[in-house]
User: Fold these one by one.
Assistant:
Number 1:
Amino acid sequence: MHKGTARAYTNIALIKYWGKKDDALILPMNNSLSLTLDAFFTDTTVTFDEQYTKDVFYLDTVLQDEKATAKVSRFLDLVREKMDRPLFATVESINHVPTAAGLASSASGLAALALACNEALRLNLSKTEVSRLARRGSGSACRSIFGGFVEWEQGTDDLSSFARPIEADRFEDELAMVFILLNDKQKDVSSRDGMKRTVDTSAFYPAWVNTAGEDLTLIKQAIAEKSFTKLGEVTEANALKMHATTLAATPPFTYWSPESLRAMEVVKSLRKDGLECYFTMDAGPNVKVLCKKQDRQQIIARLTQEFSAEQIICALTGPDAHSIET
Ligand code: 2P0
């Protein structure tokens, strides 16, 4: 029996990953840059055993159906390529995400699974190699191997596409991300399908690719200068640009709901009142608010005047993914 357990934290991109140049290898069209967060994480135990006759997957102690298990099996196949004698596995994942938050994250999930496999099989992969492996499961998972600010270098092939931490002289410790939870329903268009449709059909997509590099340069300057204003402005603009590409896709779609727009307006009004904060959004209606850690209580207080307290969750910067002794 070969058993390993690992914990990985979710991450939110400030410069988004949006579109692949290689669907099979999950190579992105542009570099992305994220902040790893402490509030949401996944603990995964994987056990490979000679006795097993198939892969089995439990999520939050519930046995998963064939479809969910097949996804895990496809990832395990990549790991089995590294084994002399391939074995089936049991995967047990616990998502430490507030219930009904709609934030079950493939990033923390696949990052924890990749690292747990490394532990179980004593593969002795470097963090870079674990990041590459996690990327094959879900692109954004490669960033969850590291804490703090993380850049995913797009690369040109399987070897050169991985994430690495960005040295920021502890600037990341001055930040917080406040989540406004607006909808916990399954989304209509998955991020995987949404980005593919956008790459294939959106007239705005070339503009996204052409300007992603500039946005990355600007945000790295902001980090180097520890300029919160610059960091926030680039973050917000980049998110808006990503979401603009979906409106020009065929058929068009958006992840925004009326409540998302309301939340964005609230963020703008907080800013007008001198509480500096900026929004970002991903492949769903929830709005995430980037702010200074020292301002977070005031911002939470203002947001709870507009939304219910259960809808507001605050995260600080999170650490590297790590193995857990069982
Ligand atoms: C991101 N998203 O950078 C972007 C912004 C969603 C919007 O990474 O197909 O689940 O498994 O590589 O990683 C979500 O996409 O997609 C994502 P796959 P993934 O965080």
Note: The helical segments are 66-80, 106-120, 127-137, 191-201, 205-225, 228-247, 258-272, 296-306.
Number 2:
Amino acid sequence: LVIVIDFGGQYNQLVARRVRECNVYCEIYSYKTDLEKIKAMNPKGIILTGGPNSCYEADSPTYQKELFELGIPVLGLCYGAQLMMHVLGGKVEKADVSEYGKTELLVDKKDSRIFEGVSEKTIVWMSHTDYISQAAPGFEISAHTADCPVATAENAEKKLYAIQFHPEVLHTVEGKKMLSNFVLGVCECAGDWKMDAFVEHTIKEIREKVGDGKVLLALSGGVDSSVAAGLLSRAIGKQLTCVFVDHGLLRKDEGDEVEGVFGPNGQFDLNFIRVNAQQRYYDKLAGVTEPEAKRKIIGEEFIRIFEEEAKKIGAVDFLAQGTIYPDVVESGLGGESAVIKSHHNVGGLPDFVDFKEIIEPLRDLFKDEVRKAGLELGIPEKLVFRQPFPGPGLGIRIIGEVTEEKVRIVQDADFIYREEIDKAAEAYKIENGKEPSWMPNQYFAALTNMRSVGVMGDFRTYDYAVALRAVKTIDFMTAESAEIPYEVLNRVMNRVINEVKGVNRVFYDLTSKPPGTIEFE
Ligand code: XMP
């Protein structure tokens, strides 16, 4: 076990993630955590994170000196490094020049264990306004930058290491190596922890927390809620009830796929309630064309249905949510870190469910880690590697009024499109041993509200136009259209027009975000 002590930095979960990438188990605790508690956990190493404060100010987060005297290796990062120096008798001051961004680091102590296998000149990510002007007694300066005389310092004998920059972010080119040097080298962790250990550990935790209580989860069939359902089911079986609302705006066959995995014939032991609310949604959406009005109706109807089901079930002890770490950060609920923006998945707890406590088993994981946990639990790949799919579903991929027929058209066109993209990508992979550069991060078909004249055989047609969208994006905040090979698009066009009744034209959407959004409404 490595303990990460959180001083409010934006990257603290990333630190934990990097430790997990070294196959070492890691837990994050606030800087307010009692030293006795830390000692009792008997960690092999301790990492102090960055933070927004100045350690020389009276009310800034700090930690008692004894932490550095336990004989346990300690690595301080950014604020953590400054704090280590400050507490142990070094000097930290406001810098004349605050360093921000990629910076060249020059390694002075070539035999430092942190820099084993690291280049003597390497690019690191700096982000600080205070700096260490003097290392604490007993510490040796092991690297510097143009503006930072003490970029790293160490007391190798006591296994104390201070790093001013952020090895946890990818901009620090050899950061992973440095962290693994600390965790596997200095701390001598075995590096044999795997996602199955997370799954086991979490199952145990859930059992302890829930006891013989009842848990309710709204299952959307998305990656996060599915993995949460899998974990909870393995932990507490039938004490878990999942409510899955099929709003009729899911992708083709998706409702049945979710039922196949989590329903009575699936591999998980739980109470599965599928609410077939398709018609109810179509009725509510009839005649509604304004995008926000549609979103509102779909959201409200979900709450109403969930509320009705919750009433039938009665009081539960826990309401489970598939919140994952990026949701937590965006909401500013991430431990000690500052608010960035609010998020729709977190915070707005449904007050109509009678429950005592919230349970969020995936709160510390990143998306790819959630997927790994999902595979570990035996959830089918199809579900685990599902693309992002918006809560309002196809409702916002059908421009204008939603009808049952339009849902059918967009489902069928989208199915063909995804199938062709996946086939082409698979063929490319087999041939080239890697994913094609055009592989989009999200791709789907939408239905424009436009009908136009065409000809099929000897007949005039007057049918709908389907729009194909495929974007490359890292964070979904900005995106570019993906360069899908023309032949693939052509094949999709042919199939859609031939196989999907009611369509006689296919467009490819080239718009980037901004100015477009990824979805159509
Ligand atoms: P936009 O359209 O805003 O989409 O560029 C960015 C990403 O967010 C997804 N999206 C949603 N996800 N509820 C969700 O859970 C929503 O209401 C919603 N709207 C958009 C979208 O699929 C894309 O990945």
Note: The CA atoms of residues 330 and 447 lie 31 Å apart.
